[in-house]
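Course assignment 3, question 2. Fill in each field.
Student: A.L.
Task: Predict the tertiary structure for the chain below.
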Amino acid sequence: MPGTVVLLHHDIAVVVDADVLIRRAVQQSLAGLGLQALAYGGWHDAVRQLARVAPKLRSLPWAADQKEWDAIALWQCLQEELGDSRRGLSVLPVVGLARSQVAAALKPHPSQLLARQLRDCCHQRRLRSERPRGEKPSVSPAEERVLELLKDGCSNKRIATELSLSQRTVESHLHRLFRKLQVSNRTELVLAAA
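Answer field:
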């Protein structure tokens, strides 16, 4: 995919272009249109960096009143704002980058990995916004004990020893807590449970 590529999902856009000046110009234009815009120099860098900032993206508030941008409308708006350039500009909706059954055996293109990450972040944000404020998902007594030790900074091995459980059981409890509280790591879990 030569030129500048913009991946679009709800209110988040990822710009991929090797030229830093063009990347910044597109990023500023997208921010001016009310989109969260991230910009990267290459596909692999974008996948790596987006995985790193995903927790921050998940914590963004879900804007139900956010204008839903159509890829073609956004492309036209960017063309008008940036002017006619010799470089190609592509705006791709994340929905259109779903892997087909035929391509399942092939190594996915980084754009598909980015699409998956963006869909996951937006899905988590939407779930958080739909849950009434103050309502916490139900946590079992065993999960609560694991969570209390986790808040104290204990490792999985230490939690297993303290509760006379196997490490595998502790990992299972943590996995369920990640899913229930819609988090992806231990730090987010402690913050969500506080």
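Instructor remarks: Residues 91 and 135 are 38 Å apart (CA to CA). Helices lie at 20-32, 43-59, 71-82, 110-130, 141-151, 156-163, 167-181, 186-193.
Grade: pending
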